[in-house]
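Quick one: structure tokens for this chain, please?
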Amino acid sequence: MSTKKLWIGFTVVMVVSFAVLGYFGREIYRKAPPIPERVVTTSGKVLFTREDIQDGQNVWQSIGGQQLGTIWGHGAYQAPDWSADWLHKEAVAMLNHFANLDFGTDYEKLDLEKQASLKARLQGEIRKNTYNVANGDLVVSDHRAEAIALVQQFYTDLFRDAPDKHDLREAYGMPANTVKDAERMTKMTTFFFWASWATVTNRVDSDITYTNNWPAEELVGNRPTSALILWTGFSVIILLAGIGLLTWYYVTNHHEELSDSIPATNPVIGLKILPSMHATLKYFYVVMLLFIVQVGLGVITVHYGVEGTAFYGFNLADYLPYSLSRTWHVQMGIFWIATSWLATGLFFAPAIGGKDPKFQVWGVNFLFVSLLIIVGGSMAGQFFAIMQKLGYTTNFWFGHQGYEYVDLGRFWQIFLLIGLFLWLFLMTRAILPALRGRSDSKDLLVLFLISCIAIAGFYGAGMMWGQHTNLAIAEYWRWWVVHLWVEGFFEVFATVIIAYLFVRMELIKVKFATTTVLFTTIVFLFGGILGTFHHLYFSGTPTSILALGSSFSALEVVPLILIGFEAYSNLQISRAAHWVRAYKWPINFFLAVAFWNFLGAGIFGFVINPPIALYYMQGLNTTPVHAHTALFGVYGMLGIGLTLFVLREMNHKNEWNDRVIKISFWSINIGLLLMVLISVLPIGLAQTWASVKHGLWYARSADFLQLPWMATLRWMRIVGDTIFAAGVVALIYFVIGLKTGWSHKKD
């Protein structure tokens, strides 16, 4: 296929996909669960107001938000899903009220016939939409108000310091007084009520709730909808059709990609390391530092799962609670992976352009200092937020926004966005000479520049929600950042830069690299842009989001069938000439990317993506199986590979001693595989069984997760984690050794 046709295809995919994404985003705004002006009883008593609910959302965000339990299935996995847990507790409270009123005993003691009649009564009341659009009031019965008060008291005891909730707090990794102020606590419970109300209340003129009947809860009649099952079937059909079409295209258009004549010596061996290129070295040292900090925080976070709030007997949660360690663990991962990719761009951009633009070194150094300030400042803000030292507005701007992967306070988000645009400016001015000249690689460079613009621009989606934005709308924009920024355009950027490196080394043909990258980008974005919706099936969105998300997320898996060809191609490249062996370990990490792309993003991703699967699995440990193997397995391995590639380019004089980096490579990969296969995946599958049989509330409850055999599965993670951590230490030892000399072969 000609390059011109591919560019037309790329343009059409981008324009049409974002038009559809925007149109249905408008539908999410229109059909988001309403936040009532007042919640009042049938007798006229005002229980709480819109302001209480919105302030309660801010309190929830300040204690870590999605880093402590989940809402609508999104967040951390040790504590419950608060929306599902509230729903179950409120339903039980109402059923007990009915049972005692009618039969003088609790619901559980009744025979099946009486239980069935009370469940029907409950469902008739609790699923009915009593929100008054005209005045904004939500009306509840007096006995429902009593149930709400009971659940509020339970959560107050849990999040404050009630002695009888000590063991439960330990199970959830929560220190006493997680919320330190009684008024803030009351307001947070109103937000929990609203989030739960959306899961059980039918949309107007519909028998489906705002969250598409999620979570599964038999007491209130939350069961999979017909649309859920229908679109699951369609997603499988679309997947099979996509695989067939892509395989046909690949077979009919694939040509030998290796260059006709592999150079006898490395064509870039004499590459001049310009001052700004050398200035990027400190970025890669920071990458290693952030990486080891992330691993350490991961060890602490996982350990809370087996010892509550302690770390081998020391009550660490008083200083570093679970929600904070997990926040920093996730954030450090984003920071070091993104830094490795951005620094790689800063290193190669002047090499592509052929010179250092004026003040380029100053720009690289200024950006580096800004990075350190953002990392340190945002961590400090999150610490003070979770320790409940900040007010609502101060927390929003400088503390913890409570949304996983975008936890930074708004000030730090803006600071980072400015930094990304500075990076874009430095990249653009460095490669402009190459774009202005005549080169067979111009199409590749244009796509490279487009990906740079997208990396800077799409992080701006994180500015689209405010302090009091409806959670359904905030989730829509959050996934623009997580799915499109992290999983989308960063991947395009990495694909282009790897292809350009191999072209530059004269290992693959320019035309093949250009057409392959363009085609891969088209296929990836065709499924990936609208596939964003698969994260939003149950986040207060209409059924149309379910249809689009399931169809296009199935297509996201299609490009991964070519992973085997990509791996074989990289293996061929690594054996193309003797001098290529100097790049053995960067290329091996690229091979690992191919493996984890297939397993983590492909198999583990599709396991949870079909609507009926995600209905029962959302919010369970099947999600971190996909997250660890895709985020670290793909993007982390790629970050390490790019880091090693740059370090190799900076010094061709010394041959690397393979022993330590070999240990690192295999330990990291084997450790990650064991972590998943012998611990996280079995836990997730066990939770799935519990979710199907009893409901999500039980699968996430302490009653289930603290069973002895479940605790054993959590402890078994120490095997994979230890091997993985040893690999990371070996990697850092190797990188330091490139500076000190112990990672070089002796003459």
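Strands lie at 38-41, 46-49, 70-71, 74-75, 137-140.
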